[in-house]
C-alpha cells in the first residue's frame, strides 16, 4: 500500500497537526504520539465520514494506518476477514 486513506491523512494533519512527513502506511497511533483521548477523537472523526457499519470504537494504538485504512475501505478485503479486520476486531 503506497497511500493512506485520504480522510485519515486529512484528520491527522488538520485536526491533530501531525506533519505529513510522519504519516506512513506503517505508522501507528503510538508512533504518531497520539494518546488515548486523541485516538478516541480520531475514531469519532473517521466514523462521521465512513459509510456503512464500520466499528471504529476501539482502534488499538499498535494498529498501523494501513490496517486502519483497509478496515474502513470496504473493497480492501476479498470477502475474507483481512488481517486488519482481525487486528481491529480483536481489540475489543
Account of the protein in words:
- By secondary structure, the protein is mostly helical.
- It has one domain.
- Helix content is 42%, strand content 0%.
- It is built from four helices and no strands.
- The chain has helices spanning 6-15, 36-49, 65-72, 83-89.
- Helix 3 (65-72) packs across helix 4 (83-89).
- It starts with 5 loop residues before the first helix and ends with a helix.
Structure summarized in a few sentences:
With 92 residues, the chain is mainly alpha-helical. 42% of the residues lie in helices and 0% in strands. The chain has helices at residues 6-15, 36-49, 65-72, 83-89.
Question: Helices, strands, pairings?
Answer:
Layout: H1 6-15, H2 36-49, H3 65-72, H4 83-89
Helix pairs in contact: 1-2, 3-4
Largest sheet: none
What is the total tally of β strands?
0
Strand content: under 5%
Residue share in helices?
40-55%
**Derived structural class:** mainly alpha
Ends distance: 26 Å
Segments where pLDDT lies below 50 for 5+ residues?
none
Number of continuous helical runs: 4
> What is the averaged pLDDT score?
78
Q: Secondary-structure element order, as H and E?
A: HHHH
The radius of gyration computed from the alpha-carbon positions, rounded to a whole number of angstroms, is: 12 Å
Shape: globular
Number of domains: 1
Amino acid at each position: 500500500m503506497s497511500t493512506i486513506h485520504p480522510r485519515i491523512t486529512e484528520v491527522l494533519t488538520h485536526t491533530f497537526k501531525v506533519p505529513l512527513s510522519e504519516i506512513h502506511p506503517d505508522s501507528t497511533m503510538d508512533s504518531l504520539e497520539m494518546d488515548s483521548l486523541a485516538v478516541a477523537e480520531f475514531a469519532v472523526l473517521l466514523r462521521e465520514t465512513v459509510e456503512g457499519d464500520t466499528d471504529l470504537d476501539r482502534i488499538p494504538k499498535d494498529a498501523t494506518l494501513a490496517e486502519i485504512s483497509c478496515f474502513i475501505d470496504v473493497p480492501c478485503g476479498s470477502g475474507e476477514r483481512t488481517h486488519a479486520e482481525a487486528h481491529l476486531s480483536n481489540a475489543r
